[in-house]
Design goal:
Layout lengths: L1 E4 L12 E4 L3 H27 L23 E6 L5 E3 L2 E3 L4 H11 L4 E6 L5 H14 L3 E4 L6
Parallel strand pairs: 3-6, 6-7
Antiparallel strand pairs: 1-2, 3-4, 4-5
Helix pairs in contact: 2-3
């Protein structure tokens, strides 16, 4: 901000006119930086939401060499959290109702692919129980989700 006398004014007058001008370049720079920060933050949150697909659980998948399996229209994503909570296609269900859910899905679409996303801290027995429930009702296309990387 600059403050000074108006041009053409005399130095001897008692009533000096003061003018002020504001340089908005630094303010514009700040707004552009904030805009970039918000754009990056929103793209990260969208990427995380896309990674979680339709579910509400965040699971820490175990590492492994993976083979890409295309998700089909009849795919069913079943997630198991470390606390034992089970979510199927974004809907929380009780452990006792898993078999009934698989049976209903098998009746509607016998070639449904079950993708199991279990946290790495979930006991092995729990994962096997869910897989056995799917196989018992006739669902044969089972996959276990893993993450790749170091």
């Amino acid at each position: 901000m600059a403050i000074g006398k108006l041009p053409g004014g005399s130095d001897e007058s008692s009533e000096e006119a003061i003018f002020a001008e504001i340089n908005i370049t630094p303010l514009t720079d700040i707004f552009l930086v904030l805009l970039i920060i918000f754009m990056v933050a929103s793209s990260v949150s969208v990427a995380k939401a896309h990674e979680q697909k339709r579910t509400g659980l965040t699971v820490n998948l175990p590492k492994g060499t993976r083979q890409e399996i295309p998700e089909r229209a009849q795919s069913m994503i079943v997630e198991i959290s470390p606390t034992g909570d089970i979510v199927a296609d974004g809907v929380p269900i009780k452990k006792d109702n898993v078999r009934g859910l698989f049976l209903a899905r098998f009746k509607n679409a016998p070639d449904t692919q079950v993708i199991l996303r279990a946290d790495r801290n979930v006991p092995h027995g729990t994962v096997v129980e869910v897989m056995e429930a799917a196989k018992d009702v006739g669902l044969r296309n089972l996959a276990i989700a893993t993450r790749s990387g170091p």
